[in-house]
Specification:
Helix content is 50%, strand content 4%.
């Protein structure tokens, strides 16, 4: 019996040292690079005010971490939680969306900004709105995005009416953005996409 207790203690210590089997404890990360990666890979699914994103497939990161931050949760703890969620992705979040130092960078960025008041304005240019909310799912060369969850818009070449309808109502796996984006933002992104496809 004593031997079993020692074995359990050794196993517990090993898991603690290994970061509970999640790839280790994230202690660093380039937050500036993390923002670029977040916008490119995560913004289509998550709301995060600092990134100007309004995704609703995954958790709203401001809502998830704001109250905890207000109650004293440290950025390092938020960073570790985010890093573990990336490592242990649960569908619909894809596995290996970002890995290694890229995952550390995204975790550092989210930990620095999630749930904090932001002074940045909501994006108003169609291109900025697209990059922040659509680019992680759609390829559009003009925007510099290469998402592959939704259709390649350069190949599809939708007109403004089709884009606007899709953004408002969603469908085919895409969430509706009516009530998430303003009417002016929806018009701006539809105009931008229709004018930029195939360039």
């Amino acid at each position: 019996m004593r031997r079993g207790g020692a074995l359990l203690a050794l196993l517990g210590a090993t898991l603690l040292v290994a970061g509970c089997g999640t790839g280790g404890i994230s202690k660093s990360g380039d937050a500036d690079q993390g923002k670029k990666l977040f916008v490119a890979k995560c913004a289509g699914c998550h709301t995060l005010a600092d990134a100007g994103s309004h995704g609703n497939q995954g958790p709203n990161l401001d809502d998830a971490f704001g109250p905890a931050r207000d109650q004293g949760m440290k950025a390092e703890t938020i960073q570790q939680v985010v890093r573990q969620q990336i490592e242990l992705a649960i569908p619909p979040m894809p596995d290996d969306l970002v890995t290694g130092s890229d995952a550390d960078a995204v975790a550092a960025y989210v930990a620095n900004v999630a749930g904090k008041a932001t002074s940045s304005k909501n994006a108003t240019s169609g291109k900025d709105i697209f990059v922040a909310n659509c680019g992680s799912c759609h390829t559009l060369k003009d925007a510099g995005t290469n998402g592959n969850v939704g259709p390649n818009l350069d190949s599809l070449k939708p007109d403004q009416t089709r884009v606007q309808n899709q953004v408002i109502h969603g469908g085919g796996g895409m969430p509706a953005f009516e009530g998430v984006l303003t009417a002016d933002q929806i018009t701006a992104v539809a105009k931008y996409v229709a004018s930029a496809v195939g360039k």
